[in-house]
């Protein structure tokens, strides 16, 4: 796994081609990361993961300062490179407008509390939902940018990845155990790992006394809708406050049907 400067797009593209993922170091300052980590921990809408692990869903509805992460220019360029389609029409194929080819699917918090269990090895949706009797696509359908807002080290529960697994074209074994060849994405706060959904990965276990906080920004191509029951749309009143370039990335969410939903808790709601 390679670590590159946060503005080095070409080196990052080469690293993803080689290893399946890349870490952009110090993409935002540590002070900005600390501020955003506190915002994650104060956001009210939660969904449970493995023991000691929480997803904090739809952070934009809580605070638009998370746009600082979602709109990072290098991350957007890497998502476009991984997910974009043709930009010029051919006699037998039209081209979708380049400025609308990449969409923002979700911006969620990932919190590993002290003593959290290790995560299950997986590939991000929709790979796990596809017909497993056939090889999975050898191209990504989603790009996940996991922002490290607190220190990511092995002992804090840093994300585990298996470099080269983008070539396997099948799901990992259903295990939380260490896999041969796994690496931990260790980096200081403000760094981000860019991870296409062809790569096997899993959360680590937090062996410290402090929560390990991250934000996952998921990008998808124009032809993909709401991917899972645990992805929720931006509220219209929030969307209307966004700058135009962010509105263009999220307008599709306003039409999502959320009748099919996962388990949510609202920590801001008064107890009965």
Description:
The model has no long low-confidence stretch (mean pLDDT 94). The strands form 2 sheets. A 9-stranded mixed beta sheet has the order 1-2-9-6-11-5-4-3-12. The protein is of the alpha+beta class and 272 residues long. The longest helix has 13 residues, at 30-42. It has helices spanning 9-19, 30-42, 67-70, 73-83, 236-239, 244-250; strands spanning 2-5, 22-25, 45-48, 53-56, 102-112, 143-148, 160-161, 183-184, 192-196, 201-202, 212-221, 265-266. The protein is 18% helix and 21% strand. The protein has one domain: Jelly Rolls (Sandwich), CATH 2.60.120. The protein is built from 6 helices and 12 strands.
Number of strands: 12
Can you list the strand order of the major beta sheet?
1-2-9-6-11-5-4-3-12
Any guess at the CATH architecture?
Sandwich
Largest sheet: 9 strands, mixed
CATH superfamily: q2cbj1_9rhob like domain
Please name the CATH topology.
Jelly Rolls
Distance from first to last alpha carbon? 49 Å
Tally of helical segments: 6
Shape verdict: globular
What fraction, in percent, of the residue positions are helical? Answer: 10-25%
Into which percentage range does the β-strand content fall?
A: 15-25%
List SSEs in N-to-C order.
EHEHEEHHEEEEEEEHHE
Number of domains: 1
Question: Summed up, what is this model?
Answer:
By secondary structure, the protein is α+β, with helices and mostly antiparallel strands.
Features:
nine-stranded mixed β-sheet; three-stranded antiparallel β-sheet; alpha+beta; 272 residues; Jelly Rolls
